[in-house]
Amino acid sequence: MKSAILIATLLALPIQVFAKDASANENLTHTIFYAAAISDVELSTRNKVSDYDEGMVHELGYRYQINQYFAAESRFIKSSSIGAKQAISLGLIDGSLNYSVLVASGQARVALTNNSYLYGNLGLTSYQWEYEKNGPWTPKDEMKSLKDSGIGSYLSVGAKYQWSRIELAIENQWLKMGDVNASNITISVGYSF
Fold first, then answer.
1. Residue 1, domain member (yes or no)
2. Is residue 49 packed enough to be buried (19+ CB in 10 Å), middle (13-18) or exposed (0-12)?
3. Per-residue pLDDT tens digits for 47-87
4. Cα–Cα distance between 107 and 102 in angstroms, integer?
5. Phi-psi label, residue 47: left if phi above 0, alpha if psi -120 to 50, beta otherwise
């Protein structure tokens, strides 16, 4: 009996989700947004992986809502120059890793209610990062600078709530940028028009 109820619920759920009335926000196809994030960065060179640092990231983006399920999105992501470990150590931990990323992605979303959504993004990035190790405690023979730029990948999942023209979202992002991987937890605010 319990399995019959579970099966009926699972079969009815997609019908309920896709049958939601999206008329309240159907004419708002453009959205601009700003996001702030905490970033966990990992640098791997010569078969050595190091959990580099946590820091702040800022984003600016634009989304075009194609229909109630799909959108095209672009965003610019820039990390701050000082990480959390570096700030706490008062500069005694040497090394800094900065990155900037231009993202083009597609978004698929599912409405939970008329105003709340779960979504996922998949896209490509054009990235540039720079790592410098030259702090006050770094021996001269260990001082180095690494740079890279190229094409990478972007994946994110999130949830958002829309009040009329204002949206608030929380998102987890994963960026692959050559030897650098970043995982960002973002909170964003957007304006739809």
1. no
2. exposed
3. 665 656 678 899 999 999 999 999 999 999 999 755 555 55
4. 16
5. left
Q: Are 46 and 14 in contact (CB under 8 A)?
A: no
Number of continuous H segments (helices) and E segments (strands) in the chain: 2, 8
Does residue 8 sit within a domain?
Answer: no
- 184 by DSSP, 3-state: which? strand
Q: How far is CA 19 from the centre of its chain?
A: 29
Residue 160 within a domain: yes
Structure tokens belonging to residue 173: 């992002």
| Residue found under tokens 């405690």 | 137
- Cα distance between residue 115 and residue 28, in whole Å: 13
Residue in the structure block whose two tokens are 């608030």: 168
Tokens (6 digits) for 124: 């490509």
- Contact (CB, 8 A) for 58 and 36: yes
Does any domain span residue 13?
A: no
Q: How many domains does the chain have?
A: 1
pTM for the model stands at 0.78
Query: For residue range 90-134, what is the model confidence (pLDDT) as tens digits?
Result: 555 566 788 999 999 999 999 999 999 999 999 999 999 998 776
What's the DSSP call for residue 53? E
